[in-house]
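Hi there, hope your week has been kind to you so far. Do you reckon you could talk me through the fold, stretch by stretch? Thanks so much in advance, here it is.
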Amino acid sequence: MYLTMRAFDEIRNETVGTILVKLLAKLKKALESPFVRMMETYGVKKTQFISALAVDWGNNEAAGWAREKGFARYLTKLKLTDG
Protein backbone atom coordinates (compact mmCIF):
# COMPACT_ATOMS: atom_id res chain seq x y z
CA MET A 1 0.00 0.00 0.00
CA TYR A 2 1.35 3.42 -0.96
CA LEU A 3 0.57 6.42 1.24
CA THR A 4 0.76 9.96 0.01
CA MET A 5 1.16 13.05 2.12
CA ARG A 6 -0.86 16.12 1.31
CA ALA A 7 -0.15 19.61 2.52
CA PHE A 8 -2.98 21.87 3.59
CA ASP A 9 -3.32 25.50 4.59
CA GLU A 10 -6.23 25.29 6.99
CA ILE A 11 -7.99 22.84 9.25
CA ARG A 12 -11.74 22.96 9.00
CA ASN A 13 -12.59 20.62 11.87
CA GLU A 14 -12.14 22.24 15.28
CA THR A 15 -11.60 18.91 17.07
CA VAL A 16 -8.85 17.89 14.65
CA GLY A 17 -7.27 21.33 15.05
CA THR A 18 -7.28 21.05 18.83
CA ILE A 19 -5.73 17.58 18.71
CA LEU A 20 -3.04 18.77 16.29
CA VAL A 21 -2.15 21.77 18.45
CA LYS A 22 -1.79 19.55 21.53
CA LEU A 23 0.28 17.01 19.58
CA LEU A 24 2.60 19.69 18.20
CA ALA A 25 3.08 21.18 21.67
CA LYS A 26 4.08 17.76 23.02
CA LEU A 27 6.46 17.21 20.10
CA LYS A 28 8.06 20.60 20.66
CA LYS A 29 8.56 19.85 24.35
CA ALA A 30 9.99 16.39 23.60
CA LEU A 31 12.50 17.86 21.15
CA GLU A 32 13.78 20.51 23.55
CA SER A 33 17.31 20.06 24.80
CA PRO A 34 17.92 19.35 28.49
CA PHE A 35 19.57 22.78 28.74
CA VAL A 36 16.42 24.53 27.50
CA ARG A 37 14.30 22.59 29.99
CA MET A 38 16.65 23.53 32.82
CA MET A 39 16.64 27.16 31.70
CA GLU A 40 12.83 27.20 31.74
CA THR A 41 12.73 25.83 35.27
CA TYR A 42 15.85 26.74 37.24
CA GLY A 43 16.93 29.76 35.18
CA VAL A 44 13.54 31.49 35.14
CA LYS A 45 12.96 30.94 38.88
CA LYS A 46 16.45 32.20 39.74
CA THR A 47 15.99 35.24 37.48
CA GLN A 48 12.69 36.09 39.18
CA PHE A 49 14.28 35.70 42.62
CA ILE A 50 17.25 37.94 41.81
CA SER A 51 14.98 40.50 40.17
CA ALA A 52 12.69 40.67 43.22
CA LEU A 53 15.69 40.93 45.54
CA ALA A 54 17.18 43.82 43.56
CA VAL A 55 13.82 45.63 43.53
CA ASP A 56 13.60 45.18 47.32
CA TRP A 57 17.03 46.81 47.57
CA GLY A 58 15.71 49.83 45.66
CA ASN A 59 16.67 49.08 42.05
CA ASN A 60 13.30 49.56 40.35
CA GLU A 61 14.79 48.91 36.91
CA ALA A 62 15.53 45.36 38.04
CA ALA A 63 11.83 44.48 37.73
CA GLY A 64 12.40 43.86 34.02
CA TRP A 65 15.15 41.34 34.68
CA ALA A 66 12.57 38.68 35.48
CA ARG A 67 11.53 38.62 31.80
CA GLU A 68 15.05 38.51 30.32
CA LYS A 69 15.70 35.17 28.62
CA GLY A 70 19.36 36.02 28.23
CA PHE A 71 19.69 36.48 31.98
CA ALA A 72 17.97 33.14 32.61
CA ARG A 73 20.31 31.50 30.07
CA TYR A 74 23.35 33.06 31.79
CA LEU A 75 22.28 31.91 35.26
CA THR A 76 21.63 28.40 33.96
CA LYS A 77 25.09 28.24 32.40
CA LEU A 78 26.59 29.41 35.70
CA LYS A 79 24.72 26.65 37.52
CA LEU A 80 25.95 23.99 35.10
CA THR A 81 29.57 25.10 35.22
CA ASP A 82 29.61 25.66 38.98
CA GLY A 83 27.87 22.45 39.92
